[in-house]
Amino acid sequence: MNELISKNYCPHCSLFWQLEEKQMERLSQQQLKSMLSENITCRYCDKNFTFYEGMIEGIITAKLFRAFDLMYDFSFRDRTFIMLGQMKTIKLPKEMKLKEVVLSTKAPAKLSSSYSREGFIESFDVISSELNPETKNKILASGGWKRGLPEIKDWVEIEYHAYGNTKDQRENEVWIELLSQIMKQIQQEQYSAAILSSEIMFESFLDKSLFISLKNQGLNDETSYLILESVGNIQTKTHKLLEKLEGNGLQINKSVNKEWEKLLRKRNKIGHGEEIDFKKEEAQQALKTALEAICTIYIHTDIYT
Fold this sequence. Notes:
This protein is an alpha+beta fold. It has helices at about 20-30, 30-35, 50-60, 65-70, 135-140, 175-185, 190-215, 220-230, 235-245, 255-270, 280-300; strands spanning about 10, 15, 40, 50, 75-85, 85-105, 110-115, 120-130, 155-165. The chain is built from eleven helices and nine strands. The strands form three sheets. A five-stranded antiparallel beta sheet has the order 5-9-6-8-7. Strands 1-2 form a two-stranded antiparallel sheet.
């Protein structure tokens, strides 16, 4: 759960607030659970919200780079120059399984990257397109560089951001992988997929939590898996089974439970093939609901210390 703590925003005024030194110290001492439900007063709008509400707001409003930060354990960012129409090899600071490369430039040229997606690599290639004469003449005629674009030259400056995993990286939990996927889906306007994935993310976290709880009761792995498989209804798992094992089900938080049941109905409609034109706000609400449900289980059960 600690990996979710990065930039936190007030859910009322959407302004960024930074962790205080004491909070950072408590995080280093693995005291996140006790912090999540604590109230915080926004220094800008003077309204109150809980720590986990600020954490979730930070995830909902994050850019795509935040999704990569969640999924991968190493990133490398730098600038370099490349000749138009040519390829340049970029050396990485360490061997890594390269997963994502984000390229940008102010020059009117297209950039692409090339690298092996299997195994550990030490470098990747960046290819720049040439300017065709028509495009070049249009830019020259409009004086484009005078409005902030660079002057047309054979060499252009590019910025690159590489993300990947190093040899010593541990495997991410499935729900964290799904969270990163949902953030990308929202950025790419795949709103139905994001809503569906949000519910799957919650169910993944729930199953993992129930499995830990069953193991804590003294059951072995096989028996725990059999019990989870035999309880096929997700609402039974979320309410009755969780309450039986831990004393509290998701219904301990009525407002979160109500929103989760709305999310479940949307998931069922998508799963049954109904074509619905969902909006970005609905996808963000689905992600928010799933994260709030996860935090509710995390806070109100003894599964996590």
